[in-house]
Design goal:
single chain; alpha/beta; Rossmann fold; four-stranded antiparallel β-sheet; 9 helices; 36% helix; 23% strand; binds adenosine-5'-triphosphate; binds magnesium ion
């Protein structure tokens, strides 16, 4: 009886569970491509997870599977105790490009989903958009059109759009990859602040190791093609810390650790899976 209660507590500790998820695609020539090898991860409510790995290792594929936008070939995803079999309800997504509707104002881009789903009355929708815009430094931009904004401003709007319905799960696929270094740093700080205030689960794909260790509670490292999660590094540094990578030796060490894993030939899946662990590192078993 006691063991049952303990195992229920242990299970419910994780709001998002990815169990042995893999994905095979058929190409237009009929070839089978393994986009993602069997990968597992347990994520607690409110955790910020970064995914890093070589190009083509399956990060975007895993992100889509987590959000229920793509079915896995094997394995399963559970969110808030329910199996994910289609798009997750309280999902927010930010892509590398903002993808805003040019004929709608900034405010109506942000509130579009709320309007379509008849969530909140127009005054409340407007108030949410206004507050979010203010929090990313765009107070007063409500009536502008996307084509009147810079790339960084457009990406801020797409972040507001992803957060306006207060999602429990925020998926971000290289959201700041197309921005200059200064804008990226500002947006990292904005994101950390918004995340601290609302605490959704964030799954954040990036090629920027500094960005991953600065923002995330845990960095999941993928092996090369076909990729799978081979390392889970907990970033034990107090917040807020988004812009402090250069000054914080601990963050620099974490970045070094991740870079070493990503170096050419450094992550043969079997060798990593059987190696010993360090205190902040979980080597994922095969
Ligand atoms: N629809 C598809 N059909 C066939 N192969 C696909 C398809 N989608 C992705 N792939 C392949 O699956 C692999 C993983 O793709 P994915 O987009 O998940 O990689 P990624 O890690 O996000 O890469 P990047 O860092 O370059 O964005 C790649 O080798 C890709 O060519
Ligand atoms: Mg990708």
């Amino acid at each position: 009886m006691r063991a049952d209660a303990a195992s229920i507590t242990r299970l419910s500790e994780f709001a998002l569970q990815v169990r042995d998820v893999s994905r095979v695609f058929s190409t237009h020539r009929g070839e089978q491509v393994t986009a993602l090898g069997a990968s597992s991860a347990n994520v607690k409510a409110g955790e910020f997870i970064a995914l890093v790995g070589p190009s083509g290792c399956g990060k975007t594929t895993l992100l889509k599977i987590i959000g229920g936008l793509l079915p896995p070939s094997a394995g399963s995803v559970t969110y808030k105790g329910e199996p994910v079999t289609g798009p997750v309800d309280d999902l927010g997504i930010v892509f590398q490009q903002p993808i805003l509707l040019d004929w709608r104002t900034v405010q109506s881009n942000i509130t579009l989903q709320l309007s379509l789903r008849h969530l909140l009355d127009p005054a409340e929708q407007a108030e949410r958009a206004r507050a979010l815009l203010a929090s990313v430094g765009l107070a007063g931009f409500e009536d502008r059109y996307p084509w009147e904004l810079s790339g960084g401003q457009q990406q801020r709007v797409s972040l507001c759009r992803a957060l306006v319905h207060r999602p429990g799960l925020l998926l971000m696929d290289e959201p700041f990859g197309a921005l200059d270094a200064m804008t990226r740093e500002q947006l990292q700080a904005d994101l950390e602040e918004l995340w601290i205030a609302a605490r959704p689960i964030v799954v954040f794909v990036t090629h920027d190791v500094g960005e991953a260790v600065s923002l995330a509670d845990r960095v999941l490292v993928f092996s090369g093609k076909p990729g799978r999660i081979v390392e889970d590094i907990r970033i034990d540094v107090p917040r807020p810390r988004a812009a402090s990578l250069l000054e914080n030796p601990k963050l620099q060490n974490y970045a070094k650790q991740v870079r070493a894993l990503l170096g050419p030939g450094n992550v043969p899946p079997k060798a990593v899976a059987s190696s010993s662990t360090t205190s902040n590192t979980v080597r994922v078993q095969s």
